[in-house]
Amino acid sequence: MSPTDPCLQSLNYGPTDGSADWCLVALHGWGANAADLVGLAPYLNLKNFSMIFPDAPWPHPQVPGGRMWYSFPAGYDFRRPHDFTVQADLQASQGQLKSWLMGVTKTTHIPLERTILAGFSQGGAMTLDVGPQLPLAGQIILSGYLHSEVQAPISPRPVMVVHGTVDPVVPIGLAHQAKDALAAQGQPVTWHEVAMGHEIPPQVMGLIAGFCEDLRQGRGNTPTNPLG
Asked: Structurally, how many domains does the chain consist of?
């Protein structure tokens, strides 16, 4: 597949009888793929959600079957600055993901206003980039980070940020930066520090499910653990 093709490959999970009235799109991290995340879907138990897990457009250079939204500099460890915005592969992925998300509504028949975008690690960074450009219902950032300054969203939506206190890959300080930047834009932020590393354990899946159900049932304007 060409990285400029707006049709990302994806895996779907959820009702096939048309009963789903909300959608959750989840973006995997660097070196993973859609199959890694779709295995978590049954444990979320989101009965009224169509769940979609796209593959990133670029093949990973070291992991067979792995995908990436963009490359990292050799030896990069998140503890030194890097201007991601100059990377052509990131720019291509941003445009492709936005176009693909706009097209998803044609197949799900669920509007973006009832769609939640989630992402883990590199997928979380992509969620922070592309999410504000679309009229989403909400965003979930798992073990993520910012590429650049947060954009003001085109429509109000709550954001949940979850990060491990002992994350050995993405330091929790980067999540604090994202949280503060979101709050400065006036976005309602639900913040969770969890005693974990760079992972999605059952506790976090419970947080995801609760956030999604709160939004679906109209409780999304009042985060359950708001930024103080």
From this structure: 1
